[in-house]
Design goal:
The chain is mainly alpha-helical and about 375 residues long. It is globular.
Length: about 375
């Protein structure tokens, strides 16, 4: 434990000071300092799950949820060939419903997201903050410059194995299928991460999260848990179809020869239609309102681009999993080989793998038994 702890502390200090010294401006130094301080606070708040479970005052509900999370953690390594380390073997209550705030941005008349580059993680299509005020400050600056902006509450993230990522109060209360999906998603980032390719990384981890959750529920889930997760996935597929259609229509508008005023008018028309289509869709959801907040706040290019980043390449990885005989170790090797290709070849390979879904006119599949 000590070597890993020391390495984590040194990494925090390096990111907070040494790397930042080579970057221009006080703003960058402040950014890395808040990142280091936030990670250090998270580190201090974490306690081994065994110690938390030993507390007689622990609520029965949290006790059960932590026990389930530990079973999922063991399953991740023994059955899914995901890293076997200290991640998700500790727990932290942050006293808030999010761990970081991610800022997404895109130009007013484009779906191409802005990118920020970091010393360790490479270039990403978002910028994360532990401090809500700092995130809002960047958002306001970007809006003043004319960008569409979305500030997202993030429940979990991966430190790519540099830290032992803890279980958090921000997601421990989720239904078991979603909890499994999140844990396997974040551990997948530790298993495979390609610098400067957010879409590849998130699609791989998203596919892995779904496939792993499916495998867990098949073997250990109750009928109610399986049905609950399948319902959640069906809603997400419907949501993704709506947003994908809106992105396609917006992309056509932005690529057209019309003037900017006409493009702005068409943009607002498409976004208004998207809200109306969502209201119609959720009438069949039996009162479920889980996407209401998403549609109410900052419905714009930045938000739609963020959805595309996570899901656009998911079909390619699901196809790859099937081609590798549904064997997770073989799947990782094949995904790693694609990740090592030059970016244009990587993109072409993923498009080819997605072809069966495109040719069949199928929506992005998120639950492979559907």
């Amino acid at each position: 434990m000590w070597p890993r702890t020391i390495r984590s502390i040194l990494w925090t200090l390096a990111v907070g000071t040494g790397f930042a010294l080579g970057l221009p401006g006080c703003a960058e130094l402040a950014y890395y300092q808040q990142a280091a301080a936030g990670q250090w606070t998270l580190f201090q708040a974490s306690r081994p799950v065994a110690a938390v479970l030993a507390d007689p005052a622990l609520s029965a509900d949290l006790r059960q949820r932590l026990a389930t999370a530990q079973a999922l953690r063991a399953f991740a390594s023994t059955d899914l060939a995901l890293p076997d380390n200290g991640s998700y073997r500790s727990y932290a209550d942050l006293g808030r419903p999010w761990v970081v705030k991610n800022v997404f941005a895109a130009p007013e008349l484009s779906l191409e997201p802005r990118r920020w580059c970091f010393p360790v993680a490479g270039c990403l299509s978002y910028r994360g903050y532990f401090e809500a005020g700092a995130a809002q400050g960047l958002a306001e600056e970007l809006r003043a410059g004319g960008d569409d902006v979305y500030v997202a509450d993030i429940s979990a993230y991966s430190t790519l194995g540099w830290f032992d990522d803890p279980l958090l109060n921000t997601f421990i209360g989720w239904p078991v299928g979603r909890l499994a999906e999140l844990m396997f998603h974040e551990l997948a980032h530790q298993r495979l991460y390609v610098a400067d390719d957010t879409a590849f990384n998130e699609a791989f981890a998203t596919a892995m999260g779904r496939l792993g959750a499916e495998r867990w529920l098949e073997r250990h889930g109750t009928p109610r848990e399986r049905e609950e997760y399948a319902t959640d996935i069906r809603r997400r597929e419907q949501f993704l179809r709506l947003t994908a259609d809106a992105r396609e229509r917006l992309a056509a508008v932005y690529a057209s020869s019309g003037d900017e005023a006409a493009k702005r008018t068409d943009k607002q028309r498409i976004l208004t239609q998207l809200r109306e289509q969502y209201r119609e869709l959720k009438q069949g959801w039996g009162g479920y309102t889980g996407y209401d907040r998403w549609f109410e706040q900052d419905l714009n290019n930045a938000k739609l681009a963020g959805v595309s980043t996570y899901y656009r390449q998911v079909p390619a990885f699901l196809t790859l999993f099937e081609r590798e005989g549904r064997d997770f170790a073989a799947f990782y090797r094949a995904a790693e080989a694609i990740g090592q290709l030059p970016p244009p070849e990587r993109e072409a390979r993923l498009r080819m793998l997605s072809a069966p879904f495109r040719l069949a006119g199928k929506p992005v599949p998120l639950f492979s038994s559907d």
